[in-house]
């Protein structure tokens, strides 16, 4: 094996397999006999990371490396190593063998790019592509002994590029198909051009009405074939429509699936470029936006020579997506076409309708306007003022309706091609002046100027007078509607062979983006600030059509905020005027006076009627004295007649404020909130919906009820208004009784809602207090069942959640042994007096133990009937208080015992020391030094005794609330003098001056008074200069005796004075003085003074020194006993 290992060394897994081959049994013989040329070629192959292959000898025995191994697939490796090439590759030997034999003869190399080779390497014949170079290898004799191959498999690139081209072609070819059938046919044509990837394809479209799938296109199969039926029944939900066509899964789930066995005995279909045909297909539903059912199905056959991997499936999914897009686009185009045809038909029907209905309107209008005009002009039975104003309102609005009917009729006849201009020679300047001047009073009443500049023209102009009247009136009316300041100018000029009419205003102007559409039918400029929102939107469109009938042109130019100018240009002769068609009518011949009157009445309606009282002006209240208390109603409408009418209906019952548009109404609401708002929907500046939205956004008006008025009838309009936040929606026309009923009902409902909101706010506050309280708060029903327990109560008693609370009864909250007391004592007292409170015990639901509480128990009674409706409790857990009280009692008992122990155990040895020391002093043989030391012992022992007494006094004061005193009658002056003498024994070198005045008799504790003198004088001596004098005085002041001790020295700082009498507090910081004081003296002085009903104070300064003043009454105050 040494030679084998040496010659076939390396090469990874394939090298190892080559070394295991018994080469002696092959046509190449033992490795040791191999020529050097073969050894070299094999060495190159095994050492390379690139796919390399060598075929050697007459049988072309094969060698290859690890990089080449994937080309052999699962079935040919490792048997191919050392095997003859014809044995390994029989399926393609007809492609390889002849070339290699030719190479052996000629020595010429072979190069092939992307060659398709059908390899059977993975259990099926596979469509593979390779780019390779086959080079001859010569042996030592110079003959071609083998083939050296370097190759790359390009299957992925070739197939991928092919599929990408198919998808690109599908998108491009179907993008502009006008019909659904055309799009389906084109999609199938593209798919048919890709048989290597899709041997066959079927496209079915779903018909929802018949629950069937219709064949819309095929490729690879003929329509009507057994595998391509023209119609398929979709499943009805209870089973498949056909066992051979399992479309149910795709239809119901919307997911694609693999159809693994096609219909037929063999399960395969002979389609596609390969002889083996195809045996499976991929069925994909084609989704439809907004629908549960798919738009159709795409069935694509799978090539048996392609691996059914994710890339193949991804391509088919993209293919289905492209077909879906083609179907959607074609359907959209068909829908657009149908919609356009429907709109055209609708437009024709609308024109016919307007024409017919306008004629029908004229008869009832004539019967309305005629009697009204007769009534207004009747001299025999004249109407009263109130009825006269009502009839004038009817007449104005009847003329307005007649104008609208005439305009619609005129426009419908224009659209139908049945209206023509009947031109007659006309003094155009005089006609135009007369029409414009008719607006003068109305324009000037609005505070505007009207300038009519129409000088005589050189000669008459042929126009249709009726149509010219409509042109001029529409333009002036439009200018007046949108002009609030400044004026309107009407001019007529002769220019060359044309007549030019200009109507200019200083109004609000037209935004530039709106100008191109200003003459469109029914177009209205959004947000235009007109005098009224009312209008049909066809006035300017009618102007353009009438001007065109005269062979002229109309243009508009405008600057927002500055005004607009409309220019009409007509030819000066009649040559360009269209003549009436034979058999058709001419102009409508509406009387000029009636047409002009309709325009003037409409313009006047945009202003407040003359003589309207100030209370009816926009924004004004109806009655400053507020004659009624029914509520404050704000009514907003841009029609003056409507404002006056509604005001007349409501003013006797309510306070009414009027507004001409939504913005004015909003400002009025901000200034004073009304109880109810009634608003028209269509208004300038701010419409009704905008007003409603703004009111709801502001907290102050968010809950004000709003009734919307609109001419839009029907359920949809009402729902839209209510959805926007309106309280009510009233459709015009409405009756006075209906309006009053709606107003009264909404005001009553608003009051109820306000009261409910107030009650809800109070309830929320109460709930917040209850939930945030640390006390138990509970409510029960009249039957004793628990209804509510706040979170603090649940935590206290161990209940979790409202359900647990509602499952309990009143008695469940008490210990079993306490329940008789609750039943027999607490509940009877509760029913009799309405409440019970005191300390009691509740039951802990977790442990069953007691929870001590301060319990407040009271009845809940109906305020109106006085009937008991439940019980409630507010209870505080006093467990912690009980614990602290017990601890305090134990502490006091312990401290009292400690005081007794300290008093006895500390004083006993000190008393023994004093007795022994005094006994020593009685001896005669005691020397001077011993006598002095014994005196020191006595002094220290007495000081220790006093310190013990002070400590016991402090403890007693803190434990018992003060020092005990034992009063008896004595002389205050004498007691203080004796105490001073004791101090002077301790300070013989210091001088204390005593001043006593008045009567000193009274009741005091002699020992305690001595403590006061001792502490104050000692303190003064300790903190004064050594050579200075301390002064003490006692005097009477009424029923009090006053003791003062004064010294000079370093003063007490002001910040220390407030805490000077606290225990363990030293009032001065003088490092040079004695620090033996523990800070109890002044505290004891204060406690002694308080025990006698008096008090102590201190004053200190650099100039005056320090003075302590003790004031005590002669006799014990009434609140003090002899022993405190």
Structure description:
- The protein is an alpha+beta fold and 1124 residues long.
- It folds into six domains: 2-153, Beta-Lactamase (2-Layer Sandwich), CATH 3.30.450; 166-418, 2-Layer Sandwich (Beta-Lactamase); 422-605, Histidine kinase-like ATPase, C-terminal domain (Heat Shock Protein 90); 614-687 and 699-708 and 736-764, 3-Layer(aba) Sandwich (Rossmann fold), CATH 3.40.50; 773-877, Beta-Lactamase, CATH 3.30.450; 963-1113, Heat Shock Protein 90 (2-Layer Sandwich).
- Helices cover 41% and strands 21% of the residues.
- It has 28 helices and 35 strands.
- The strands form eight sheets. Strands 8-7-6-11-10-9 form a six-stranded antiparallel beta sheet. It has a five-stranded antiparallel beta sheet with strand order 2-1-5-4-3, sandwiched between helices. The chain has a five-stranded mixed beta sheet with strand order 13-15-16-18-17.
- A hairpin with a 6-residue loop joins strand 26 and strand 27.
- Helix 6 runs antiparallel to helix 7 and helix 11 (428-437) runs parallel beside helix 13.
- It is flat.
- The relative contact order is 0.03.
- Mean pLDDT is 82; it is low at 237-241, 574-592, 611-629 and 1069-1076.
CATH topology description of the largest domain: Beta-Lactamase
In total, the number of strands is 35
Based on CA atoms alone, the radius of gyration comes out at 59 Å
Number of folding domains? 6
User: Can you say what the CATH homologous superfamily of the largest domain is?
Assistant: GAF domain
CATH level-two architecture of the largest domain? 2-Layer Sandwich
In DSSP terms (H or I, runs of 4 or more residues), the helix count works out at: 28
Identify the strand order in the major beta sheet.
8-7-6-11-10-9
Task: Indicate the proportion of strand residues.
Answer: 15-25%
Mean pLDDT: 82
Helix content: 40-55%
- Low-confidence stretches at least 5 residues in length (pLDDT < 50)? 237-241, 574-592, 611-629, 1069-1076
CATH class call of the largest domain: Alpha Beta
Structural class: alpha+beta
Specify the overall morphology.
Answer: flat
